Amino acid sequence: MLHYLARISPFIDALVELQGMHHDNPDRIFYSLEESYKNALNDHADVREIIGEFFYLPEMQINMNKIKFGKRQDNQFVEDVLLPYWCKGNPYRFVVMLREALESNYVSQNLNKWIDYIFGYKQQGVDAERSLNTYSNVTYEDKIDLYQIHESNPALAQSYKLQMYNYGQTPSNVLQFKQKEHPSKKYREEIFKFNLVCDQ
């Protein structure tokens, strides 16, 4: 989350604290949506997900505070986030189009698959392995007992805490009671037709 919100207070302060009280290397700062997208597709070590703020906070893309992040290896200064061509460099247009995409029939039809990965039956176990959706044990809330580890090895427990702090944790498996696919949302047209029938 802090990675994406690096241009907004108070998140920048938390990010600086996380990086040992200084700004991170400019090449690792959130710089370009296209670059982030490619990293998520091609680099299995980059498991960041889009955060909710993308859908309502265009200011997160703008360096309004004129923070000096520095210069990347390609000699580009890190300023505003480089946005996709289709939003014409306008972060407000970006948010509007992203919200429209989120409400599209395609997303409605496929959002259940994401739910299965994050909260459902593909989060852990054999189905997660088949789907290449596995992470370090330290990211799962039920895989390690920090209190027990702390009693025998405080240094290891502290190391695990730092990993959790830096890389995050997998959400709780809220759908663990059901080991099947989450149903897809109905198309908006179907819902609209249903409302027409109900209104008669």
What does this structure look like?
Helices cover 41% and strands 0% of the residues. The C terminus is likely disordered. It contains 8 helices and no strands. It has a domain of 92 residues. The chain is flat and about 45 Å long. It is an all-alpha fold and 200 residues long. The longest helix has 14 residues.
Descriptors:
single chain, mainly alpha, 200 residues, flat, 8 helices, 0% strand
How is this structure best summarized?
This protein is 41% helix and 0% strand.
Biggest sheet character: none
Radius of gyration: 21 Å
Strand and helix order: HHHHHHHH
Number of strands: 0
Distance from N terminus to C terminus (CA atoms, Å) equals: 47 Å
Give the low-confidence spans.
Answer: 192-200
What's the shape? flat
Strand content: under 5%
Overall pLDDT, averaged?
80
Class based on secondary structure composition and strand pairing: mainly alpha
Which percent range fits the helix content? 40-55%
Assembly state: single chain
- Counting DSSP H or I runs of 4 or more residues, the number of helices is 8
Explain the layout of strands and helices.
Blueprint lengths: L10 H8 L14 H10 L48 H12 L2 H14 L7 H5 L15 H7 L1 H14 L20 H12 L1
